[in-house]
């Protein structure tokens, strides 16, 4: 007979949430009752869970959000809480003592560092410089103009993004080369001329920290790992063949010991536990460089269950005290996945 578990998952409204939810529902080892919560009424994940509840927004009031989670824990006799959003992770880690069950989350101190791109890049520059991007942190227009020139503009593209951004939000590319074809014959891109940024930033006395970073190119690596207290157990490499900075629509998956060793160093440096996602790309001088670190369940972590490793489920087992063993040789031959859009209907109106 399967062990029964009541699992509460937060932020179930993401585009790829169904993959993660199915990774739990389709398992053979447990009989899992899923309680999904989200601050958005039309969260797509509500169609993939057994129970759905509207939650407060952890961005607006993190303690109120955690108190709500505890109410759900008592109401549904929840065994494990799995936070999926950045802010949910931070809130539940910060106030973990208010929740009377296990939470799949790293320590608050580790998360604060890992979610701060400025801190991540600084740590890499000091301890793993070959994998650190060239970058500057700015908070006024004068600094902005100096930084883009230091990073090679106008001859080179430059990436501009918020220091504490999430999920690819607010990421832009400063570019000096536009023509009719790449503007009117292509799908919309995030490349903009200097005038766009000047109009926004010039009249701002001071603004929230922005990261000005060197432009990175293919190949892009989206690395999914399972770890425990800073010790990596296993990593799979998703090479992005088609997609954007935050989503892979066609990817090639394989075990790569070189990439796993790099992931292990990063995981140890930031003391990460359970599942995480590391985004890497290639610098102009051929280095493999980290540009994003997601110390939580990543967008594509659920899809590898189809080729023999279920990251969400294995992380759950790790939290419950199991030892995780992996035959890494099973994943050496590359396999290609294709993602597509599907839909569900909301019949509540």
UniProtKB/TrEMBL annotation:
SUPFAM superfamilies membership: Glutathione synthetase ATP-binding domain-like
PROSITE patterns: ATP_GRASP
Gene Ontology molecular function: ATP binding; metal ion binding
Protein name (record): Uncharacterized protein
Organism: Arcobacter cloacae
Source organism phylogeny: Bacteria, Pseudomonadati, Campylobacterota, Epsilonproteobacteria, Campylobacterales
């Amino acid at each position: 007979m399967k062990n029964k578990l009541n699992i509460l998952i937060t932020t179930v409204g993401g585009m790829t949430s169904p993959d993660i939810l199915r990774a739990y529902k389709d398992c053979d080892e447990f009989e899992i009752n899923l309680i999904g919560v989200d601050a958005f009424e039309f969260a797509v994940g509500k169609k993939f869970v057994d129970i759905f509840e509207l939650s407060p927004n952890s961005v607006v009031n993190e303690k109120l959000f955690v108190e709500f989670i505890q109410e759900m824990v008592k109401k549904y006799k929840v065994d494990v809480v799995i936070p999926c959003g950045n802010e949910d992770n931070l809130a539940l880690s910060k106030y973990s003592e208010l929740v009377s069950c296990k939470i799949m989350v790293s320590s608050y101190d580790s998360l604060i560092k890992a979610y701060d791109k400025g801190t991540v890049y600084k740590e890499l520059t000091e301890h793993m410089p070959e994998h650190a991007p060239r970058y500057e942190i700015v908070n006024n227009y004068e600094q902005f103009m100096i930084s883009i020139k230091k990073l090679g503009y106008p001859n080179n593209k430059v990436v501009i993004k918020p220091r504490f951004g999430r999920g690819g939000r607010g990421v832009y590319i400063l570019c000096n080369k536009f023509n009719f074809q790449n503007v009117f014959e292509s799908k919309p891109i995030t490349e903009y001329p200097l005038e766009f940024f000047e109009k926004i930033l010039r009249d701002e006395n001071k603004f929230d920290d922005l990261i000005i970073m060197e432009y990175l190119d293919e190949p892009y690596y989206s690395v999914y790992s399972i770890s425990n207290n800073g010790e990596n157990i296993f990593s799979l490499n998703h090479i992005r063949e088609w997609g954007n900075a935050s989503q892979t629509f066609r990817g090639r998956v394989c075990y790569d010991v070189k990439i796993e060793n790099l992931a292990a160093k990063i995981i140890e440096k930031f003391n990460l536990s359970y599942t995480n996602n590391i985004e890497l790309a290639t610098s102009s001088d051929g280095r493999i460089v980290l540009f994003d670190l997601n110390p939580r369940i990543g967008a594509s972590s659920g899809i590898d269950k189809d080729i023999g490793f279920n990251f969400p489920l294995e992380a759950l087992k790790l939290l419950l005290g199991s030892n995780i063993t992996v035959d890494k040789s099973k994943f050496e031959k590359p396999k290609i996945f294709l993602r597509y859009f599907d839909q569900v209907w909301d019949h509540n109106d």
